[in-house]
Design brief:
Two copies of one chain form a homodimer. By secondary structure, chain A is an alpha+beta fold. The first copy, chain A, is about 30% helix and about 25% strand. The longest helix of chain A has 25 residues, at about 140-160. The two termini of chain A are about 45 Å apart. Chains A and B meet through helix 1, helix 2, helix 3 and strand 8 of A and helix 1, helix 2, helix 3 and strand 8 of B.
Chain lengths: ~450, ~450
Amino acid sequence: MPLEPAVVAHTVQLEPATQEDLRSDWTRLCDALAAQGVQGPVTAPPSVMAALPGVLRRHNWQASVVLRCRAAGCEAVRVGAPGDRPLGFAVDMGTTKLAGYLVDLQSGKTLGMRGRMNPQIAYGEDVMARIGYAMQSQSHLETLQRAIVGALNEMIAELCAGAGVGPGHVVDMVAVGNTAMHHLFVGLPVEQLGTAPYVAAVAQALDIRAADLGLEIAPGGYVYILPNIAGFVGADHVSMLLASNIPSMDGVVVGLDIGTNTEVTLNANGRLLACSTASGPAFEGAHIRDGMRASEGAIERLRIVDGKVQYQTIEHAPPVGLCGSGILDAVAQLRLAGIVSVTGAMAGNDRTVIDDVHGTAFLVAPARITGHGADILVSRSDVQEIQLAKGAMRAGVKILLEEAGLTEADIDTFIIAGAFGSYIDVESAVAIGMFPPLPRDALPAGGQLVGDGRAAMPGLPV
Amino acid sequence: MPLEPAVVAHTVQLEPATQEDLRSDWTRLCDALAAQGVQGPVTAPPSVMAALPGVLRRHNWQASVVLRCRAAGCEAVRVGAPGDRPLGFAVDMGTTKLAGYLVDLQSGKTLGMRGRMNPQIAYGEDVMARIGYAMQSQSHLETLQRAIVGALNEMIAELCAGAGVGPGHVVDMVAVGNTAMHHLFVGLPVEQLGTAPYVAAVAQALDIRAADLGLEIAPGGYVYILPNIAGFVGADHVSMLLASNIPSMDGVVVGLDIGTNTEVTLNANGRLLACSTASGPAFEGAHIRDGMRASEGAIERLRIVDGKVQYQTIEHAPPVGLCGSGILDAVAQLRLAGIVSVTGAMAGNDRTVIDDVHGTAFLVAPARITGHGADILVSRSDVQEIQLAKGAMRAGVKILLEEAGLTEADIDTFIIAGAFGSYIDVESAVAIGMFPPLPRDALPAGGQLVGDGRAAMPGLPV
């Protein structure tokens, strides 16, 4: 992707003020920028202008100025020491998880990545629960807004600390999320999202001053928020469509963005249809007894061979749980081995245990070999969570196809957005009915592993 | 002055959202505005957009939207109930006093006016004292900024209450002040104003989001701040020049804007020169033993006839003090009567008292006839304050004339800005040397009285 940032840093050397040259500091700056080809007076919020006198006098009348230029003119978003490098922050605000990236806007290099749980979970696990909470009062809406903004500020501060700079060096931001996450982030009411006909308050792309949302980046920095499509198909899906190029692909293309809400787009020979399904957070490791994020010790691949369990963990560490691709493999393998029935019932065998809390469960790894000294199990209710998730996704695909007068057999290309699509075992996804049974070349490649990229499956003792 | 507000209110009736028409509320609004001829997507800060869903559903899909349109597009500054009238607030931020005006932006009518002391006085009486205070720390600068903004918010709230609306109906603001007041209001550093060569941080005209300064008006409202000329000739003087038309007048014109800092402009046959003088707050009633604002009971005109004091008070109430025109008259009459010498020394006579605190003083009105039951005096130190004030002003005029190679005799027109110029007795101003001794038609008209416009001078008993 070519680097084309909305902001550009200029380093300027000004002439010192004298009794004969009483131009204001800002006028002096504008004159120097004009000499570099920047047109017209440069505007800025007071917080940016306020930094200039001190910077100039501390740095021998030099400064670095980050400009955001549009047809109407240029706006300064930061005034800093000469040589400051401008950084950008991009964030995907999922219902369950947040993923943020710190980017050097001069080199285009990603300086760091950080994932964390969306703290709004404390006020409702899914979108409808959070809408319900926010509808109760204005202060609830503000609580949810502060929660997400606080988490983003922490992510930004941590990533910047890792890059050896303060968060004020972040001069531009891009954020996406589903329509409800978008509204709760921007502080827009969600009542109309929660009641028929479920319309968004705002759908157009937004350039919002980060400070207006409480984001602690450069004082004049903006956050660009992609447009929403509808009440339940949001800016995150728009970014997926842009990145995947689905809208301009030929034939019949289905694209899935798997998350707590899974958005589905169908490109039916040029006609675009989209919907959202409530698939739950199972593939993000939530609502799964031993579910976890894709980090060290997560079982990311699992096979049952001759009644024996084989698995691979991230970084080959002793297992401590199952990440999304691992739980998908586990359910698929249990189904193929006949341990789980077509309805999801779990038959007893020598690896079945009865867990006090979760009922019938299958022993994936006993306590003696795990990293935390406790059994790792796949329970009956874990299977149900996966059933709900894959059923929702498959229904979304089928409904869009029906709307376009097509069937699954017409699909030329089936795409899964993001990292998950490249990590999961596609055969497992087909085995449990999450993906339609398409020819192999119509399905995502899959099979990449988080840990070290090796697809080898060691036969581990159980 | 023709009414040409920067913001315009539009009332719109939208089509309700339905299952077949899922446009977002904001898109629906933009479409309705486009049908009224408003070009392009309308932007707005989140706080403005957030109001729309509730307003639409409470008012049967009607709303009043106040737009601020520029070449680059339109921005919504307020979304309210249909029929809301847009109001504007203009304020002159003096070093000592604030004067604010609430204006109906549809009719152009001034709905109310309010004056009050600048609460920054608690941190320094004059500009240099406040610069010194602000230079001590960032928190001092913030304290001064909060003080002025808090006072403006109170003035706005009081004026709006008088007009029967909330402060959110104020959708646009204009503010002026000298360069230091400007910087302290905007939150700009003032170190460089307080040290040679005394340059402004910012001189260009500013459009600042009112919310950025903590001003409690419409959530998207702006405050327009006129440009500064230099470190000590600020936006208030620019507004005076615009209103008085001095820059386009013929001949040699001198314009004074009298205040704690008095700005002087000389138009020398088309060449404009300006300076500022530290004249002190005497004419605003401060630093004068019995000084007061021009309100009920203030002595606004005074004569000494045959050794007897005659005076007129505002609203003919019993006297409680002297306003600016009154103290000017008093000092002039004392000088003409020979009670005050050319150096300012006060000779004793039968009306002289020795005040414990102020030393020699002249009894203007004895306790038995005053409104508050205490003597009203003009002290030796009051005379000194007036000497300092008029000396500073006259020096400013002379220095500019000298710079242009002219003398006072070359002045064709001598103008005093604002209300003060029309209230003072011009002969008194000439008598004490505040104005040069010019032909009568070159001087301001003067002589208007605050109270009831009658120039009659009742002979009051003393």
